[in-house]
Write a structure and sequence with these properties.
alpha/beta, 46% helix, single chain, TIM Barrel, two-stranded antiparallel ribbon
Amino acid sequence: MSLGLNVFHLSTSAGAALLGQDSSSARTLLDHARSAASEARRAGVARVSFFTDTLRVKSLARLDLVHELRDAIANRQIGFRYAGRHDLASGQLTACVAEMVWIHPLRGAIPASEFLRIAESTGLALSLSQAAFSWLQEDYARFQESWPAHARLSFAVSRHHLSHEEFVADFERALSQGPIPPERLELRISEHHLGTRQPGEFKSLANRGVELMVENVGGAGAPLTWLAHAPVAALQIDAAWSGAVRMDASALRICRAAVGLARSFRMHAIAPGVDDPQQCKRLLDIGFDQGVGQLFPALALSAAALEQQYLLSPELIVETARKRGV
């Protein structure tokens, strides 16, 4: 649904509980159905989710995870892994793409998709995004001599941060005071969130040298009017399409359309999931000029950051276990 330059993406979630099987009480039955609907929304499925005893256990586990996520943000237990983005023709590094990593002391590595979804549904997304950018600045200051010359530092902005009234001011203040030069920064915004802000609101950041990249293109349909007025430097296709480009005719058509859109606006066309030379050649032939994937060498900075800063100490593991009664 669109209203002017604003685009709203609506989705429905349905949960069900069975009378006599899940409960005989109307109040409890509604509570169980509500839990099932929350599970459907969390999983992003289009079908009805039915209540089960397993679902109740999962809900309790996620409740624990919410408290632990709040502590992880406060104590900086979440860090970054850096993936390199490269020019597909020359192999030259063009950007260091920051991807959030949470190594939980008891649960191990928690997928970013899981804890970001929890953050969005519990009101923690804004504080996580704001804290994450400060961590990014600390990383840059710490590893500044290791950053490859001319490669941008790419940071994904959450929808909640993007919609915050102080979004532009937040970054302008940070760039004025922090170690990251504006001309080295790239902000990634999902195609799904383009209508959150007016396109002209990004121009002050662009005038300072910050580049804007729209990712996950090919899902919701990027609004052309918004793209025509926003200072966007690059479009990145959704990984599902670039990964299937050699086997799926629909994926091929969507990739070609994305490249055509990028060229019409004089933007870079970026493909994620570039994992082998044949796929790289295919994407080059279509017109993509940059890519991210296993074909390219890992950044040494990623391993250094994890080893030196984000693997938790034995003392912290013991303390976390004590709090949970393990």
